[in-house]
Amino acid sequence: MNIEELSLLHPCFARGEKNAKGRIHLPVSPGCNIECRFCKRDFNDTEQVPGVASSLLTPKEAVEAVGRAKEACPDITVAGIAGPGDTLATDFALDTFELIKREHPTMVKCMSTNGLMLPDRAERILEVGIDSLTVTVNAVDPEIEAKINAGINYHGKHYEGVEAAEILIRNQLEGIRLISEGGITVKVNTVLIPDINGEHIETVAKTVSEAGAKLYNIIPLIPRHELATYPPPTCEQIDGARQKAEKYIEVFRHCMHCRADAVGILGGEDIGEQIYLKRIQGETPFSHG
Ligand code: CLF
Ligand code: SF4
User: Is the confidence at residue 53, as pLDDT, over 80?
Assistant: First the structure.
């Protein structure tokens, strides 16, 4: 789907003004293959941040949840998968999208990933017919990325530091290229950590735009886990970063830092309770949206 079509149907691809469409996040992806220093994935009841989900669903349960969500709120037009782990670390997300395509063909299929496995999985992503893809790219300089991400598990091997960062960045950019060339609209999320990548946003925006991304979203750091003592960006810093990014790529401004099981219209009431029946308590993690 191109960005003009998405702009009307997808709350996270609305350009300029907000649209009144909603999304259901399906928490079907358990594990992750990288180690963001700000992320502690968990199942949690109360926190409104990405990566937190009540409990995992099977692909079949996820499809049933889409049916309930559409009934409760017909303006929900997007089925998104954004965690609680990475969507390409296991097959559950793509299996779920295949079922959704069959059972709910009008739903926009939206996937979010850290991008490590994108080149490996690009062909299947195109086959399944995802409509929009978000890749979280926090740096395009390995020295900076190594301060944000401790390591990766890739093709059965564990890599750390700059070596891990080099592989991750290479795959993210190659993946954005392949997916964009395949006709899927790509958005990039960057977690803004002023002390680490604050001066690097312009370079990230320029690089991902050259790779084919069409939209850019800056997510302020929620200080936790290994980055618990790092200050989050101020409003001025977020605004400054957006202005720099905007020189190269359109910027999305209505992000709500959704949980991995968020349901409803952005900024409106979350009806996840009603759709998923139960949410469980735990410590707060963070993920991509
Ligand atoms: Fe979900 Fe993300 Fe798709 Fe949207 S969220 S997978 S693109 S349907 Fe949207 Fe939520 Fe911000 Fe994400 S407001 S955290 S940008
Ligand atoms: Fe994995 Fe996302 Fe957490 Fe990073 S933020 S470790 S990609 S789940």
Answer: no
